[in-house]
């Protein structure tokens, strides 16, 4: 199968390329970027010198469509929907890494991203790409909204527990992310001297991922009541979420619920016996590591992912594998 | 006035020395450590070459007592109480940076630190050294229990709000600390390769500082119900605490409460207008920066301190200034 | 005395302000920046909240001149010479932190910085601000070219040895600098994700500081033959230079030369007995630490400074102290 | 083929296991450590949870020999020679990652490592494992001394140039390494708070790798005259070496020499056109990236490797592939 990557020069594009280069059934047919058209990809990412020197093409969608079966969109929010519609109408399989197809209800998208959605009907067709929860939707889909990084780290541990009614709907998620989550564009906030030796929250009570987490968790329990605080870690990659809720059930029941729900999920690792997940354990992998602690009614859940792999490009390839009926783990172990 | 530092070679001892060297009214009379006795201090901390080459003495308390007015104890928990009693009986002013005199009720201390307290009556005499809250106790005291770093970052923002009954007693404190909080002794957990690029919680639902926070906040509101989770940041110094609770009061009322309570506290800075505290802003200072956010009933409070300054040695000197009737900020700006 | 800082919002401006705020004889009268005019300084650097909230002014030089005795220029190369001339003609004491007045021979400046120098006669008046070597020039000067950071770390250890003919003129200087040396403006090269976990040389055989080092060392020995390689360290501040040359003299003679030459230099610390300088030992100080090693004819010299203090703003204040006949160390210990 | 790893719990053991787990023709039969015998490997390195939970065995060499074809020794210097002799006599293929078999002349080993070598005759049989230079020796060998990390980064760029007589024999190698090179054992020197924000040289004019580099480069040119200075970088992995020498040849001739010599070496990448190698470009890979700069007679060569991969375990697997007549790159791309 031939895969194209639109907007291939950011961190998610780079990660996607590194994964696809090791994927046994995929050939990268096109990589595009208007800014860098004409340059070999390895000039931007010298790590890939002699490994992937392919020339970056301009965003000529017609040409890309003629030359690919699957199209990954690594475009900014709002810019993505146009490209998605184009390739979808051409009959291509589309995996969108932006937020444009994560909400089947476009009103919430429009409020959150302050943009009119041009293709609300397409949103209804799109699957939400957490394979551990929505595998059937994904299998039957030709258009996929790949989840946000923070939402992935929060939804996976909570969904089964909420669905089974085992935990309280009042949830606090205190999340911390590496700097690559802010993208490759240089800004004051990503200057080395600003981030190094520092730590702080941002987007307090106003981050856009909160509505995505809320929208998806409502499918498990309509009464979900969420507070989400993201923080910026002085590391390149990885997310840790510490999640607080309550439960009147025994901890073994909560554990068992997670074990049962994810018994066939190769990338979910649930820790027991007091072992604590760490970003280091999942960095550069597609795993999500989860642990659950309880004292009285108080529940603390810890989860860790790599924001660029399970939180973006790795999960995108996992979704592609499912859409193409490949083994879910192909290219990801 | 002459000050001695017992156990001067750890990170809090080093910080204390750097502060006292710039203090206009204090002379460092003795620094002790059995391990390093006989070495010049600057051999351990070459930063102080030609600045503080004073020789480290063994722990001869009799000799130290003859040569000092104030004694700072930078000893491990449990080891400290013996020294504190000795110097206190000799009529010295004692500032203990361990946990041994933070609890006036020794049963809680004994449960938390799994050690019998030999001087419960002394605990009753000791002041708890958060000057912004317990200034009167401190002024009248000759023995002071200097607070833990995490507790300082959590108690200061919450105490007035709880005392005035403006927030709910159910509190979640999600705290993150730099590695110096774990001390100078090399361990697997503090190895550079383990900490660099990593982030994780530790002591989940079991950290010793939880009982200290709980014990002190009960003085503001007896019904306090706390969950506290510490995390290890890949930075050397600084603590950020993100604190969750609820309130049915307007955010202006909460803000006003903090402003009023801390109007005479030179080291408390309260941020408004959406500005967010950061560890960088307080690193190497004695400030605590606080911000408060609200949406519906949900309250999020952010606080930042330097764990070695406001969270340890800076606060110790602030307490000393008060005990000696000096200006509270002497040597600290 | 009243000091103005032109271009006060970069890292050297910030460092200068922090130092001057603690200087007992200086009052900061004006801080300017066209970009940030109208903002309180602490909005840019929240560390200084409640400490230095002074409003930033536009670059109205006439107004600044009326209100100050000393002017520090923290402007880009080439932009600085115009301001320097203006304030110098107004009779102000001028300390320029750019490269514009570091070369008394403007042809070398012009080749290196690819800019025509408009005031070559002023360059002849300017002192080169390494107080340890050019104190007399500085005392008699009203215009000072403050040295580059790399040159400071390399010239101080070499100058006496070259002048006394104790070492070979063939010199290799392998230097490594923290990221703040690249300035505050966000670029791809200073993005956290690019710098973190990385290390590399830059400007190999083509860095502009090479001509400055060469020009100044020629005053010690006209036959100097230098190779200089700068590297980018994943830290915020500090420079380490490892310098290679040869000598047929005994190491004690080399040591003695440095000790004698710098016997009255309070900020030069020379290590003996195999002790090795480290960036940590000089960070946030105005010290330069130096050690010298020898095996056969081979000489290895190590030096460390803080690039923003001894390599920029600290040295600027040291120079000001000398120009104003203050104690050299005022505000710097 | 079945491979055993003796002393599997350090950083080189961990790296070796990660590589071998992806190697299509190798099965890991035994992993040993007296300290951790009985524990699953993933308890030490939770990254490998559910991937490699194999139990660590004690150092029962007889049992290991019965169960393996190849033995990797990740033991400390001196401890390794005994194990190497044992497995070699049993007819196993032995790859030793310590220094014990890097020198065919044991007197130099004994002086450098201050240890008597018990098996000098075995040293004569051992190949030195830089495949790019000594491939034939390696192909015919059953015992291999895997090179040191610094030597790998310095020998590969210099060997062809020295052999062809294109550069001067006077060499200065200024090298910088990440902290993993110091091993997993916690020490003061590897404490996060000591390394973070710091940078410094160590072992100046006295590091053990100097004699290894010297010994091997003498095979290219007997008159080699080397100064080597290692430095500690605040990063986990990677080595950069900046190498200084002279040449009266045109830079194109030097470049051509390297291109020709390494035309069949899949892991050597030579940069041209002013591109500069960086640790980031080779981290987690088996590549060595090299660039060469020249001005007049002065030559500056830059090389970068990952100290744990090309500098240790990756090169060990590359050597194994050659010894077993596999494709050199198997498991390494």
UniProtKB/TrEMBL annotation, chains A, B, C, D:
* SMART domains documented for this protein: Semialdhyde_dh
SUPFAM superfamilies recorded: Glyceraldehyde-3-phosphate dehydrogenase-like, C-terminal domain, NAD(P)-binding Rossmann-fold domains
Q: What class of enzyme is it?
A: oxidoreductase
Q: Which GO terms describe its molecular function?
A: N-acetyl-gamma-glutamyl-phosphate reductase activity; NAD binding; NADP+ binding
Catalytic site? 149
HAMAP family recorded for this chain?
ArgC_type1
Q: Any idea what this protein is called?
A: N-acetyl-gamma-glutamyl-phosphate reductase
Specify the species: Deferribacter autotrophicus
């Amino acid at each position: 199968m031939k895969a194209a990557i639109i907007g291939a020069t950011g961190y998610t594009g780079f990660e996607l390329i590194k994964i696809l280069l090791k994927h046994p059934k995929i050939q990268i047919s096109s990589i595009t970027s208007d800014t860098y058209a004409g340059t070999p990809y390895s000039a931007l990412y010298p790590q890939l010198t002699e490994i992937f020197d392919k020339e970056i093409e301009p965003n000529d969608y017609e040409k890309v469509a003629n030359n690919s079966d699957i199209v990954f969109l690594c475009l900014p929010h709002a810019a993505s929907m146009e490209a998605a519609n184009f390739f979808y109408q051409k009959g291509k399989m589309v995996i969108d890494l932006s937020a444009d197809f994560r909400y089947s209800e476009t009103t919430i998208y429009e409020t959150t991203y302050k943009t009119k959605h041009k293709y609300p009907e397409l949103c209804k067709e799109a699957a939400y790409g957490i394979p551990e929860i929505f595998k059937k939707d994904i299998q039957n889909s030709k258009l996929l909204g790949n989840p946000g990084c923070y939402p992935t780290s929060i939804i996976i541990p909570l969904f089964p527990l909420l669905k089974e009614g085992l935990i309280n709907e009042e949830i606090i998620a205190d999340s911390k992310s590496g700097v690559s989550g802010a993208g490759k564009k240089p800004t004051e906030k990503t200057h080395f001297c600003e981030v190094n030796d520092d730590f702080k929250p941002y987007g307090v009570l106003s981050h856009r991922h909160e509505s995505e987490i809320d929208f998806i968790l409502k499918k498990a329990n309509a009464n979900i009541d969420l507070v989400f605080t993201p923080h910026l870690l002085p590391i390149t990659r990885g997310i840790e979420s510490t999640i607080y809720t309550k439960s009147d059930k025994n901890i073994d029941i909560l554990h068992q619920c997670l074990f049962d729900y994810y018994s066939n999920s190769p990338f979910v690792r649930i820790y027991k016996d007091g072992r604590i997940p760490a970003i280091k354990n999942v960095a550069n992998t597609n795993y999500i590591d989860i642990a659950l602690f309880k004292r009285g009614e108080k529940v603390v859940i810890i989860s860790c992912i790599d924001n660029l792999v399970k939180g973006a490009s790795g999960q995108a390839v996992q979704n592609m594998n499912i859409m193409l009926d490949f083994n879910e783990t192909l290219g990801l172990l």
